[in-house]
Design brief:
The complex is a heterodimer of chains A (120) and B (113). Chain A contains no helices and eleven strands. Chain A is mainly β and 120 residues long. In chain A, 41% of the residues are buried. With 113 residues, chain B is mainly β. In chain B, strands 2, 6, 7, 8, 11, 12 and 13 form a seven-stranded mixed β-sheet that branches. Chain B has a four-stranded antiparallel β-sheet with strand order 1-3-10-9, with no helix packed on it. In chain B, strands 4-5 form a two-stranded antiparallel sheet. The radius of gyration of chain B is 13 Å and the shape is globular. The chains are: A mainly beta (120), B mainly beta (113). The A-B interface holds A 35, 44-47, 50, 61, 63, 97, 104-113 and B 38, 40, 42, 44, 48-52, 55-56, 59, 61, 93, 95, 97, 100-107.
């Protein structure tokens, strides 16, 4: 069974940093592209970024609002996806989901999400 | 970026009746190398993550009831629920994944009339 479990969400002050983690199981993690998607309270879904398989190489893609502030990385040895968030802004407040595609879309499966609140 | 537009924003349908949601993309989401439309539909119930319902514009994901169907081509797509059930109350999002960044529509909230 595919499982994605996010953690690391917290209350942080504007300008602060936070690192989110997504623990993956039930599929071949190293063979899949992984994404982060966020949802501000009461709002729609916003793609944050995506990291390809190591074998695919190439750049990591980021949405314009987070480019230069957020960094996506992966550890295939522990089946873990990371989102390092720096210079956080109030508008980064959201539930952050990790997601993977297993042959249909980039986002066939989603975790339950972790809440990041940026407030002074 | 490809902009996705959905209509209506809110839809109330009687139990057992048909619900229809429209999605329009600002550019074609057709991927000619494999002759597929890179258009998906997701269902999100309150307090839950989104769930993939439809991919390739018209193929139901595993375990999705056959009352859900997707159709369309080019830039215009539709999600239909043939006979609305109470458990279908949710927000529905379309997404294009033919180009980066993948983009979502703003969502359509479906409720019982």
């Amino acid at each position: 069974e595919v499982q994605l479990v996010e953690s690391g969400g917290a209350l942080v002050k504007p300008g602060g940093s936070l690192r989110l983690t997504c623990a993956a199981s039930g599929f071949s993690f190293s063979d899949t592209w992984m994404s982060w998607i966020r949802q501000a309270p009461g709002k729609g879904l916003e793609w944050v970024g995506r990291i390809k398989r190591m074998s695919d190489g190439g750049p990591i893609d980021y949405a314009a609002p987070v480019r230069g502030r957020f960094t996506i990385s992966r550890d295939d040895s522990s089946n873990t996806l990371f989102l390092q968030m720096n210079s956080l802004k109030i508008e980064d407040t959201a539930v952050y989901y990790c997601s993977t595609g297993l042959g249909h879309t980039d986002n066939d499966f989603w975790g339950q999400g972790t809440l990041v609140t940026v407030s002074s | 970026d490809i902009v996705m537009i959905q209509s209506p924003e809110f839809l109330a349908v009687s139990l057992g009746e048909r619900a229809t949601i429209n999605c329009k993309s600002s550019q074609s989401v057709f991927y000619s190398p494999n002759n597929r439309h890179y258009l998906g539909w997701f269902q999100q119930k309150p307090g839950q993550p989104p769930r993939l319902l439809i991919y390739g514009a018209s193929t139901r994901a595993y375990g999705v009831p056959d009352r859900f169907s997707g159709s369309g081509s080019g830039t215009d797509f539709t999600l239909s629920i043939s006979s609305l059930q109470a458990e279908d109350v949710a927000i529905y999002y379309c997404q294009q994944y033919v180009s980066t960044p993948p983009t979502f529509g703003p969502g359509t909230k479906v409720d019982i009339k």
